[in-house]
Amino acid sequence: MMWVAGVRALYLQALHPRAVRGVLQNSDFRRDAWGWLMRTANFVGTTTYGTTEAAEKAGARVRKIHRMLSATDPDTGETYGVDEPELLLWVHCAEIDSYLHVLRRSGYPLTDPQADRYIAEHRVSGRLVGLDPDTVPADRAGMEAYFEKVRPELAVGPEAREVDDFLRRPPIHPLLIPAREGLWRRVARLAYASLPPYAHELYGRPAPRAAVVTRRLRVTGTLLRSVPARLRWQLPPKHILRAMDRLGPEARPAPYKVG
What we know:
Strand content: under 5%
Distance between the termini: 19 Å
Radius of gyration: 18 Å
Number of helices: 14
Number of strands: 2
Shape: globular
Number of domains: 1
């Protein structure tokens, strides 16, 4: 379900013109979109499962790269750094909100206090990318207030359309087109469907009924969590393997384990 959440986050992040412009003007997104997505996923995996040292190193690397990059507003000619706090905060909140929203809506059993704790703990990941933790929402109420405040700044420009086109029809090898149509498009459609109503309005495509989306998320989550653990974790990413090795043989990821 985190892949569904990750795609939802990309849809949401693209709605901030300055933030998405910073990505498209400074990356090889068009030519190496899959590599860009995997590097992003690896950063999330390292900060989630890695040691403190590994997380700090990953954060320092991201901050160093961001300090060297800038973007230009084609309408005003303004040049600005991609590490502006307001842009970093938007990317952070869109990501954390998406992970939490999709996971809970898919039936993962998190209480409200646990959801607040998840958001609060991720102030650390905000610090790692260059944010002052005190400026990062610490609970669901703070997150909701942040999105309400930033909504007037959101719009769908040409850069957001480009991200939308990629997420709906990512370029792949011709032999993999059937897999894209059968698997990826299902993930992308479900991720898009789970966006908040104002995002659907901005993108200009009708939103499915909320109850229908919730049912689809719950069915998908239930099916994925029913896969036997020995199959689900047969080939986990290296950062998960390293964490399991560090914590001991009993520290295997479990679908309903919340500590």
